[in-house]
Design a protein that fits this description.
The protein is of the alpha/beta class. The chain has helices at residues 2-12, 14-25, 58-63, 65-74, 87-97, 111-121, 135-143, 157-164, 167-176, 185-193, 213-225, 241-251, 269-278, 306-312, 331-335, 350-359, 368-379, 382-398, 402-417; strands at residues 50-54, 79-84, 101-105, 126-129, 148-153, 179-182, 199-201, 231-237, 258-263, 283-285, 297-299, 315-318, 340-342, 362-364. The protein folds into 2 domains: 12-203 and 401-417, Rossmann fold; 213-398, Glycogen Phosphorylase B (Rossmann fold).
Length: 419
């Protein structure tokens, strides 16, 4: 009954879903492409043997890389069907995997749409990255005898409370899962409490994503071109944060410093450029040219170059953490050997953040004023930055191995599910 009411609710809000697509398409027209796929209608030819991996957007698509490489190696006769929900996720999939995977949008969670999805593709099994729980999708997977696992699963205390309020709807969905590979013991406990079975802690796949050597070399070239200028990177910033970061940049007394500002969402690049201009700051865009001596802010309006930005930076602030948005992932920064600052709000990546701070790879600041002071203090101390760089590299290396543990877990669960 709960799933029936949920499905009726989805049908009722269909006009709102379309309005949201149109709203997003104002800044990113690709949202109006492949619309049929959002309802389970696909045009591309389908190979006979498929393994399905769902990665909702950019972060999950990149995190899936070591897992997808492992799946291709362990099931060499199969192709990977990679689904996502956003145009940027799809573009990232094209950039990272090329023609090695088949890409499509996962349909909205209407009963008919998800049934068409499974009838069309009939995968051997499915892997959902992180925490993508869709009641009708998982019920249809069970009906079509497709075992589905959750990989790299994380669930914050806040999200667990939200799911808990929908227990009659989500507990059966969690119960359908053939297995859950969780990032931490806390994630595993919260997922089990919501009804997930066969939960195992395998670690965070993002530690196994190796930064592109080409991107690292590109970042070092950028740094060389700047001479001795200190570089502070504000990475993956979210709406409302850029103004605060510009305030902190003005407050930090670091002669000749360059702020590299990289918004998380590409549809906001123009908005952030206008904000920088309104502050009277001399800005250059990555898409236009390299920064020159007069440039105060370099706007990173490019996709797929975050490793280059980290390699360029002396110090990085991780966005999403100044405001109560949960923070973004600091693991890529550590893998690039970049010292990190985080704000007070890191509940999306709590364990990784706490571990990085304990290892000396990151520091937490509690306000905009503290951010400016920390930037000023660290950029003025070559010894402290060198120590944090070494700690970041050690921290990233120490946490590798999640991909192999997750692959072994998936093999066991698939074998068990198909007995």
């Amino acid at each position: 009954m709960a799933r029936l009411l949920y499905s009726l609710f989805l049908y009722l809000i269909t006009p709102l879903i379309w309005l949201r697509l149109l709203w997003r398409a104002r800044k990113q027209a690709d949202y109006l492409h492949h619309l049929g796929e959002r309802y389970g209608f696909y045009a591309q030819p389908v190979p006979e043997k498929l393994i399905w991996v769902h990665a909702v957007s950019v972060g999950e698509t990149r995190a899936a890389q070591p897992l997808i490489e492992g799946l291709l190696a362990r099931w060499p006769g199969y192709r990977i069907l990679l689904t996502c929900m956003t145009p940027t996720g799809r573009e990232t999939g094209r950039e990272v995997y090329g023609e090695r995977v088949i890409q499509a949008y996962l349909p909205y969670d209407y009963p008919g749409a998800v049934n068409r999805f499974f009838r069309r593709f009939s995968p051997l099994f499915g892997v959902l990255m992180e925490t993508e729980i869709w009641p009708n999708l998982l019920a249809s997977a069970q009906k079509n005898r497709v075992p589905v696992m959750l990989a790299n699963a994380r669930l914050s205390v806040r999200s667990a409370r939200g799911y808990g309020r929908l227990g009659r709807l989500v507990r059966p969905a969690f119960g359908v899962l053939a297995g859950v590979s969780a990032q931490t013991e806390g994630d595993a406990s919260r997922l089990a409490q919501l009804g997930a079975g066969s939960v195992e802690v395998c670690g965070n796949l993002k530690f196994d994503v190796v930064p592109s050597p080409e991107k690292l070399a590109l970042g070092r070239d950028w740094k060389t071109g700047l001479g001795s200028r200190p570089v502070w990177l504000a990475a993956s910033t979210r709406e409302g944060e850029e103004a605060l970061i510009l305030d902190a940049w003005r407050a930090a007394r670091v002669p000749d410093a360059l702020l590299v500002l990289v918004p998380r969402h590409p549809q906001r690049f123009n908005e952030v450029a206008d904000l920088i201009a309104s502050r009277g700051l001399r800005c250059q865009r990555r898409s236009v040219a390299m920064p020159v001596a007069e440039t105060e802010v370099w706007l990173g309006d490019s996709m797929g170059e975050m490793a280059a930005y980290y390699a360029m930076a002396d110090l990085a602030f991780i966005g999403g953490s100044l405001l109560p948005l949960g923070g973004q992932n600091l693991i890529e920064a550590a893998a690039c050997g970049c010292p990190v600052l985080v704000g007070p709000h890191t509940f999306n990546f709590l364990q990784a953040t706490q571990d990085a701070i304990a290892a000396g790879a990151a520091r937490r600041i509690d306000s905009v004023e503290a951010l400016g002071l920390a930037v000023e203090q660290l950029l003025g101390s070559a010894d402290q930055l060198a120590g944090m760089r070494q700690a970041a590299s050690r921290f990233a290396l120490a946490h590798q191995g999640a991909a192999q543990r997750t692959l072994a877990f998936i093999e066991r669960q698939v074998a068990q599910a198909r007995r």
